[in-house]
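Sequence in, structure out.
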Amino acid sequence: MPPGNTGTPITVANPYTITENFEAGTKGSYAAADIILYTGSWNFNDALIGNLAADVKSGAKSVRLRGGDIHMNFDINGLNKIIIKHAKYGTDAASTWQLSMSSDGGATYTNVGSAINETSTTLVTDSFTITTTTKVRFKIAKTGTTRINIDDITFKGIGDAGVTVGVPDTQGPDTTSTSNPAGNRGVTIGSDAPPTVGDNSNILFGNPSGAQASMVFNTNYLIDAGYYIESYSNVRGTPNWVSWHLDATNTTNATGRQDNFAGYAGLDPSWYTVQSNSYQGSGFDRGHNCPSADRTSSVNANSATFLMTNMIPQAPNNNQKAWADLEGYLRQQVVAGNEVYIIMGSYGVGGVGSASATSITNINGGKIAVPSNVWKVAVIIPTGNGDVGRVTNLTRVIAVNTPNINSIGADWKNYIVSVRDIETATGYNLLSALPKNVQDAVETKRDAGN
């Protein structure tokens, strides 16, 4: 519908494809445990994630299943097909495994197809047609003690899968500390990085603060990290805002979470460089702006998100609950056939972390300001071309502004505001590349949250 028209946009159920390739997980023993993977939480019982030469795999890792099972701890909607790659492990004897499906949250399971005889020493692909209108989950079980490998489980369906893809940024060293800082590093920009200009570029909808790549702009310094663009404040020791484009090419799960926090080597030598351990003992998470799970197309892409210039001191419950859920929700929109332009930032001074019940204005000996508020703006459009011109007064734009406190509620929908509210609080000109009449329409309304 062209700009200026009103009415209700037509919702089209788009096809989705989601692949769990087990690259994002680590599990070195057969003991039963839940593990967070790209698609969500899975239970491994007498199974591990193998990376040995004898493990048959399409990437660096695959499931090694001995005598138990692996099953999903989550449901998926709109499914019509599941595809599984499998093989014998090493020189083990032939074995048998069975796929089964549950439509009651894992209480009971029904076999899908016949048992599979595992005889191949290379990956074999089997496809199972699913006929159901309800949400379902799956289990792969085997008998005996000879081992098999399972890899690349692909779900195909229509509409909203209801699956939050990507390992959330609340895992691992976001909430722990290290004594010694990692060495500073820069960014290696690969062919999987968004284009520098035009459709899908990270700053297509405008430079909110007029940041420039000159050290004269030490409180508004433009950093092009390839996989995202930001305005950085050397005075605050944090980004003012970070902008990036998100589509299915960014979340391929080609690599797992790197956890390689490091100072950014690209800052002027006279500036202070925030280190990987600069948040140690502060009670604040190293909160990503551009999330790790939004950049899984390569090691280079994921590593870029772990630079400290992409971090803010974020209250743990703010980072691990409301923001983790919002990040996952936006990735769901990509699975549903959309692309998303995202700007995240922070402002103000004084937040409440886990180490104190009172507001903390700075950490790291005063070198890093603790923001009072954390905000995000997301423009959601169906995947296509001519992106600026496709934004209309009906386009969905989500704006969220949360207090940076540990007592924050878990539901990001309770913190929905308008884009204009964020502009008033920050002084920025967001979505400035849009025509004025479109800006006025999308920036003054509040999203419904669904």
